[in-house]
């Protein structure tokens, strides 16, 4: 093996990653934004062979699919060429359940906008993978899943509110991310006492207990809007998510 071939061989790296967004590049390629276990957020270049029997197909790169990638990782490059890719965890229910699919489309858009750090974070990757696998395996009572996901994700951005600040009758200051004993005087980004209490309930939920907390569609939609506003206030240039309206109509 020549020195050049030897060097190139060791540029190939295998990593597991979650698809955030896929866009078509020319006629026979895709650019796939993904969050990976070992590399953090990256962009992969995937060449799609014209053969129908080819292993690499566009359907492999649907939003939040868990993929095992083999790519040519070069430090000076911002886009990495993929040589091999296969499912790391084949979903059994998400692609076939309209409600789960809508949740995944929303979360993919959210994560694409909010994950901007290119460095690897094993705790974050593990949280994303665990959450997706949990949703795929869940058979019922997952209507609050996206709310719990968004609330707990805020920990990774350092935004998770301090529960110790809460006392009955408190307000939640969205701008400063904390509970207060009186409503803020210098801005209007806060929740009243009743909604602050509901937010506290949401903060206490996890995937295994969320079915115990009943919410109707209007209450769930309001919680979603509050969480979206919270991220909009704290994440620079956070846009209006296109999939937000679709998700608000689910789970009557």
Automatic annotation (TrEMBL):
Pfam families for this protein: RecO_C, RecO_N
GO cellular component terms attached to this protein's record: bacterial nucleoid
This protein's UniProt keywords: DNA damage, DNA recombination, DNA repair
GO process terms (BP): DNA recombination; double-strand break repair
Gene3D superfamilies listed in its UniProt record: Nucleic acid-binding proteins
Presence of the UniProt keyword RNA-binding in the record: no
Residue ranges annotated for the DNA replication/recombination mediator RecO N-terminal domain, each copy included: 11-91
PANTHER family hit by this protein: DNA REPAIR PROTEIN RECO
Alphabetized HAMAP family for the sequence: RecO
Name of the featured protein: DNA repair protein RecO
Annotated organism of origin: gut metagenome
């Amino acid at each position: 093996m020549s020195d050049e071939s030897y060097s190139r061989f060791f540029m190939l790296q295998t990593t597991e990653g979650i698809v955030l967004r896929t866009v078509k590049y020319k006629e026979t390629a895709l650019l796939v934004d993904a969050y990976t276990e070992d590399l953090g957020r990256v962009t992969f270049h995937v060449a799609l062979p014209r053969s129908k029997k080819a292993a690499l197909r566009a359907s492999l790169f649907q939003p939040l699919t868990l993929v095992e990638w083999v790519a040519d990782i070069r430090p000076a490059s911002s886009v990495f060429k993929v040589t091999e890719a296969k499912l790391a965890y084949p979903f059994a229910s998400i692609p076939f359940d309209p409600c789960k699919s809508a949740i995944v489309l929303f979360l993919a858009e959210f994560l694409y906008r909010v994950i901007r750090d290119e460095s690897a974070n094993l705790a974050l990757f593990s949280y994303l993978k665990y959450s997706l696998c949990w949703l795929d395996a869940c058979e019922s009572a997952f209507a609050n899943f996206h709310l719990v996901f968004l609330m707990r994700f805020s920990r990774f951005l350092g935004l998770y509110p301090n529960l110790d600040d809460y006392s009955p009758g408190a307000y939640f200051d969205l701008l400063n991310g904390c509970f207060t004993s009186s409503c803020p005087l210098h801005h209007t980004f806060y929740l009243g006492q009743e909604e602050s209490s509901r937010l506290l309930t949401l903060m206490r939920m996890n995937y295994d207990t969320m079915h115990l907390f009943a919410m109707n569609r209007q209450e769930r939609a309001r919680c979603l809007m509050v969480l979206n506003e919270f991220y909009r206030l704290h994440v620079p240039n956070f846009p209006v998510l296109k999939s937000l309206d679709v998700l608000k109509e689910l789970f009557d």
